[in-house]
């Protein structure tokens, strides 16, 4: 049997195997069989090398795909954070606009309330003055007919009450709209803001005693009668 030299123990390419030479000795192996065996061995090594190259390419492809997915996941997360931030900003803006609108309605309601009370007070004073002047001319037996000024004041008070209730109904509907605004989950590092109803409650220090309806009309105070 032919003894291999030290150089043959290293990894050899298929081409080196095919071109290998051996010394001839008496009663040695058949050279044709050795060549055929080396050819088969070289072919198998070529196939193994091709398979390893294919596997390496597949590994590289999978690594590249993994890296791409990792980068894509990072981009998706960044996009989601940006969308959440935009949604939070929109929600905050809507709440701020609604609260400001409620403040405007509250101020308008207070102003109209003062105007209504002032007009009613002035009308009552005028009616009292006229009734005092008329009472001096009435006989001691009492009034013979109702005083028109007092009836006017009563009618004006009823109309003022209806108009004031309309203002309060419109304000109550705006407060209900605040409760329907979308609520976005706040980030953990931020403190949750108070609900719009609580913000509105901090604005108003007036207690209303009429029931809240569902009307959305804007009330303007006008006198149904002219006392002059």
Q: Span between N and C termini?
A: 141 Å
Poorly predicted residue ranges? 1-9, 184-191, 199-228
Number of strands: 0
Quaternary status of these chains? single chain
| Secondary-structure element string | HHHH
Number of H/I helices: 4
Report the biggest beta sheet as strand number plus sense, adding barrel if it closes: none
Q: What does the average pLDDT come to? A: 69
Q: What Rg is obtained from the alpha carbons, in whole angstroms?
A: 49 Å
* Percentage beta strand: under 5%
Kindly state the percentage of residues in helix. Answer: 55-70%
Specify the overall morphology. rod-shaped
Structural class: mainly alpha
Protein name: Cell wall synthesis protein Wag31
Organism: Thermasporomyces composti
GO biological process, one term: cell division
Pfam families: DivIVA (PF05103)
